[in-house]
UniProtKB/TrEMBL annotation, chain A:
PANTHER family linked: CHEMOTAXIS PROTEIN CHEW (PTHR22617:SF45), CHEMOTAXIS SENSOR HISTIDINE KINASE-RELATED (PTHR22617)
Name of the protein: Chemotaxis protein CheW
Membrane is among the record's keywords: no
Lineage: Bacteria, Pseudomonadati, Pseudomonadota, Gammaproteobacteria, Oceanospirillales
InterPro entries named among the record's database cross-references: CheW (IPR039315), CheW-like_dom_sf (IPR036061), CheW-lke_dom (IPR002545)
Naturally occurring in which organism (per UniProt): Vreelandella maris
One Pfam family matching this protein: CheW
TrEMBL record, chain B:
Record region (Disordered): 133-161, 242-291
The HPt domain, residue ranges: 1-103
Catalysed transformations (reactions): ATP + protein L-histidine = ADP + protein N-phospho-L-histidine
PTM-bearing positions, type Phosphohistidine: H46
Protein name per Swiss-Prot or TrEMBL: Chemotaxis protein CheA
Compartments, as annotated in UniProt: Cytoplasm
Key words of the record: ATP-binding, Chemotaxis, Cytoplasm, Kinase, Nucleotide-binding, Phosphoprotein, Transferase, Two-component regulatory system
EC number: 2.7.13.3
GO MF annotations, alphabetized: ATP binding; phosphorelay sensor kinase activity
Functional summary from the UniProt entry: Involved in the transmission of sensory signals from the chemoreceptors to the flagellar motors. CheA is autophosphorylated; it can transfer its phosphate group to either CheB or CheY.
Length: 165, 700
């Protein structure tokens, strides 16, 4: 499904796309730059009781209450630490504002369609449904995450399944 | 209330109606007009005319009247629309707008424009449908109220003959008896009723009145539909009354239409001076316009949010400055600046919050009518007194309080105030008194509905409750007994009337008020009357909270739910089957909810005797919540969690504390449910995914 889907999408918009590259452990991931609202440090998160462990809680973003999701916990990475380098990428998906915790943000990359390969069927922790492809850049491989699909998915428990989002 | 108080409302409404009208006119497809749109345009014109008539804005009323007639033809399909006609209508709308502005700055409107547009519109009527519209000089019976459109011109012109103290034949069609009595009373207020006769199908009243037919119709339309009224002028004496209708309609069908076109000329003659006044219209107008603007509530809320942010930033800075001072690196001008900033920020916040506030008058102004109608139906005599009309309340609350209040007023009139004869017999004045009052009390607003009626009968309430299978005891306090009337399906009315008594409603009233964060109290004395008190927060955006600490975490309890707090002693705590614990507080056993267990807080005090029990009340039940520490009362700004996240069991909303961090506002009943659920689930860690139980149980 993802193969046909991403292929069609990419053929439709045969132009370069910009991605924000971030790291989770030793792996490099990237999301569509247009989804990113801002990047800030990890601080002052109020825990929400009885929520899944990867939902760290909520924080105050200039008067807006924003949930914070730790993708490292969600992706079962080891060594989850919160330090000065820990970064929250605030993204806008489905009319919502959500912060995602990552180990660091490296740079913004422009990928031409040829550099985006369809994602192979793999992954138990990260279903390929949530990927829009793999980006190859010299010897680096970027996992292109479809952040919309990921954050609104049932398993993220960020959105009431009854709500219309 | 002085009618002038309503002027501003009328201006604003008329302005809105005019822009609606314009929008519909612009969207109108002339080749295939949408009847809904034509109706909307017509209704707008009709409403403006009615308002203008009520306030005596004659020129505006007449202009609108002519336009309305044309629109009426258009919506009936008798007038074929063309683009140039729509243009004329738009021009008429512009002129009406100018007239409205003139009235707003207390000037007479431009006479020339008025005459020009009237003539243009008249010309259209002549050219397009070959009909002479009734002239602008005297507003006449509306064509739409006439049974047959072909009689329009005849009827319209006939009513022009009506002099300063003309005789009018008011025919009421298909009006039921009780409304008819009301209407005749209403007519008696407007003039002298000379004779009345007829049956339910057609009841005729000959009225001697200086009011125009339109004004009379406008008054009656409160009670019945416009097409149930026919108003015609009567030339002869009242003796004709029984067959006046055919008599007046027939001879006057051929009455001359000449007076109409002459009318504008007369007008100019008599009002030459106001026309000149138009030159000095401008500056005053500008002043009047700047006195109020309409802004969407969203924009105001955005400003309120931003100001909230500013306050938080300011208090963070304040903290930093006082830290600096502690380290003796303070700077006095920095400190002065900070305290100035603090004052300005608070003032700004207050000013911004006040934008959302509107006076209770907007709610109270509808009650004279409600009371009149209800009293009329019940055959009671009531005097309505309102107090504290200028008390201000948040706009969203004002909108939501009207229905519950109407219900309480009806209830008071129906069950509270006795029939006039009964009142006289027990030595009370015949006329019952109902008082509506509003005033500020602390951070709340207190709205009272007071009557001097029979009061509530404690024994009867208890008996009725037992009949309904509600668990009651004779030792209940009066306040608790009176609260029974809010139980679903509870009604002590001996018989069901169409005003109230079916037992639906009072529970809805209570729920509505609770959903606004308020509560209802009842004070009553048998034989002396009842006082229903509604206590509401001033605004929904701000909540009076009690901040508490559990482990390292801060939570907010709505202050309205907190009854008291105490230090539990070992002897008062009892374990019940399994894990349940109850605490004995003054002969009452309350379920204990340990916040740290329910919300999985680490490092909290686990020994109940070392913690503090806060007695809270939610949905009529009491609980004891175990917390580590009470921090204090504070007003907090309520922020929705669901905007970006989802509903969380046990949490109603969130707020931002002075240090910029988020604190969660606890939901008492939600916490109790959560605690029960967790115990049932064997203290397993509950994931949000399998909390579907709550989604169903949550009464959203």
């Amino acid at each position: 499904m993802s193969q046909a889907n991403s292929g069609a999408v990419l053929a439709a918009e045969a132009e370069n796309r910009e991605f924000l590259v971030f790291s989770l452990g030793d792996e490099e991931y990237a999301i569509d730059i247009l989804k990113v609202q801002e990047i800030r440090g990890y601080e002052n998160v109020t825990r929400i009781a009885n929520a899944p462990d990867f939902i760290k809680g909520v924080t105050n973003l200039r008067g807006v209450i924003v949930p914070i999701v730790d993708l490292r916990i969600k992706f079962h990475l080891e060594n989850v630490e919160y330090g000065g380098q820990t970064v929250v990428i605030v993204v806008n998906v489905a009319d919502r504002v959500v912060g995602i915790v990552v180990d660091g943000v490296s740079d913004v990359m422009t990928l031409i369609p040829d550099q985006i390969k369809p994602a192979p069927e793999f992954g138990v922790t990260l279903s390929s449904d949530f990927l829009s492809g793999l980006g190859s850049l010299d010897d680096r491989m970027l996992v292109l995450v479809d952040i919309d699909k990921l954050l609104t998915s049932e398993e993220m428990a960020l959105v009431d399944s009854t709500s219309s989002h | 209330m002085d009618i002038a108080d309503f002027f501003d409302t009328f201006f604003e409404e008329a302005e809105e109606l005019l822009s609606d009208m314009e929008q519909h006119l612009l969207e109108l497809d002339v080749d295939d007009p949408d009847s809904e749109q034509l109706n909307a345009i017509f209704r707008a014109a009709h409403s403006i005319k009615g308002g203008a008539g009520t306030f005596g804005f004659v020129v505006l009323q007449k202009t609108t009247h002519i336009l309305e007639n044309l629109l009426d033809y258009a919506r009936k399909g008798e007038l074929t629309l063309r683009a140039d006609l729509v243009d004329t209508f738009l021009e008429a709308k512009d002129i009406m707008h100018e007239q409205l502005d003139a009235y707003r700055s207390e000037e007479e409107p431009n006479q020339e424009a008025f005459e020009r547009i009237c003539q243009t519109l008249q010309q259209i009527a002549l050219d397009e449908i070959g009909q002479q519209l009734d002239g602008p000089s005297i507003p006449a019976a509306e064509p739409k109220s006439a049974p047959a459109a072909s009689e329009n011109s005849a009827e319209a012109s006939s009513s022009e003959e009506q002099g300063a103290d003309g005789l009018l034949l008011v025919a009421l069609l298909n009006v039921v008896d009780k409304d008819r009595i009301l209407l005749v009373e209403e007519l008696e207020q407007l003039g002298e009723v000379q004779s009345q006769s007829g049956d339910a199908k057609r009841y005729e009243v000959i009225l001697k009145s200086s009011d125009s037919a339109d004004d009379i119709e406008a008054v009656m339309c409160f009670i019945i539909e416009p097409d149930q009224i026919e108003i015609t002028a009567v030339e002869g004496v009242a003796a004709e009354s029984s067959n006046a209708a055919p008599a007046t309609a027939e001879p006057e069908a051929s009455a001359p239409v000449a007076p109409a076109p002459q009318a504008p000329a007369e007008k100019t003659a008599s009002k030459a001076s106001p026309a000149k006044a138009a030159t000095k219209e401008k500056p005053k107008k500008a002043a009047a316009e700047s006195s109020s603007i309409r802004v969407s509530v969203d924009k105001v809320d955005q400003i309120i949010n931003l100001v909230g942010e500013l306050i938080i930033t300011q208090s963070m800075l304040d903290q930093t400055v006082s830290d600096l001072e502690d380290q003796s690196v303070g700077n006095s001008s920095l400190q002065n600046g900070m305290s100035l900033l603090q004052r300005n920020a608070r003032d700004l916040q207050e000013a911004v919050m006040s934008i959302r506030m509107i006076p209770m008058e907007f709610v109270f102004s509808r009650f004279p009518r409600v009371v009149r109608d209800t009293a009329g139906k019940l055959g009671k005599e009531i005097e309505l007194v309102t107090e504290g009309k200028s008390t201000e309340l948040d706009k969203s609350l004002v909108e939501r309080i009207t229905d519950p209040l109407t219900h309480l007023v009806r209830n008071s009139l129906d069950h509270g105030v006795e029939m006039p004869d009964v009142r006289e017999a027990i030595g009370k004045p015949r006329v019952g008194k109902l008082t509506l009052s509003a005033r500020h009390q602390g951070g709340n607003i207190l709205i009272e509905v007071r009557d001097d009626g029979a009061g509530m009968d404690r024994d009867r309430l208890l008996a009725k409750a037992r009949e309904n299978g509600i668990n009651v005891s004779d030792s209940m306090s009066d306040e608790e007994v009176f609260q029974l009337i809010f139980a679903p399906g509870f009604s002590t009315a001996k018989e069901v009337t169409d005003v109230s008594g079916r037992g639906v409603g009072m529970d809805v009233v209570k729920r509505n008020i609770q959903s606004m964060g308020g509560r209802v109290e009842i004070q009553s004395k048998l034989g002396e009357g009842t006082n229903t008190r509604i206590v509401l927060p001033l605004t929904l955006a701000i909540l009076d909270g009690m901040s508490i600490k559990v482990g390292g975490e801060t939570f907010i309890l709505p202050l309205s739910t907190v009854l008291e707090s105490l230090q539990p002693s070992k002897d008062d705590m009892y374990a019940m089957a399994g894990d349940d614990v109850v605490i004995k507080v003054r002969d009452e056993y309350l379920p204990v909810i340990a916040i740290h267990e329910v919300l999985d807080v680490a490092n909290a005090i686990t020994d109940p005797t070392k913690s503090i029990a806060v007695i809270v009340q939610g949905e009529g039940r009491r609980y004891a919540m175990l917390v580590d520490e009470l921090i204090g009362q504070q007003q907090v700004v309520v922020k929705n969690l669901e905007d970006n996240y989802r509903k969380v069991p046990g949490i109603s909303a969130a707020t931002i504390l002075g240090d910029g961090s988020v604190a969660l506002i606890l939901d008492i009943t939600g916490l109790h449910r959560l605690s029960r659920y967790k115990k049932e689930a064997g203290k397993k860690v509950v994931n949000n995914q399998n909390l579907s139980f709550f989604k169903e149980a949550e009464p959203l």
